[in-house]
Write a structure and sequence with these properties.
Shape: globular
Strand content: 15-25%
Order of helices and strands: EHHEEHEEHHEEHEE
Number of helices: 6
Number of domains: 2
Number of strands: 9
Distance between the termini: 26 Å
Length: 184
Amino acid sequence: MKAIVTPLIAMALLAAPGSLLAQSAHNDPYVAGPANQSRLAQQVRHELLMLPYYSIFDDLAFRINGSMVTLLGSVTRPTLKSDAENVVKRIEGVTQVDNQIEVLPLSPQDNRIRLAVYRAIYGDPQIGDRYGHRALPSIHIIVKNGNVTLEGVVANQGDKNLINIRANGVPGVFKVTNNLVVEG
């Protein structure tokens, strides 16, 4: 069976529930497998999005291979890693969970960078008005040891470039990896 790789952010933005795009990497949209895997993917996605401490500073993704779910991504809280595993284990049809979620190191400097990048991106009216007014905004900011990774989905290449410029302009950022996917 084909493995399904899911970015939670991309699915949150797609207009039609159950719409699926092409697969290329762990954080890119995924290809639909058999109908039972598509249903399972929707259930896993829903459970992960409902986690109470899941924020824009975390990135959760998953891969499904048969009845095994592999959890991927990075989180700021160790409890979010274990909570994600626990909710996925309880889904009907899941027999095994491989939790590969990375817990980001505690760092006051990284916390400062997270907030500064958040303000730089979502404080810009061109970006904040379009992407910031959702329960879970579509652009996720992952900071590890001063390095910023941007995950999620944007409407066009111009937005992707503007967000990259804003993140690169934050003092203290060593490097920005822009993994944002342009919709469509």
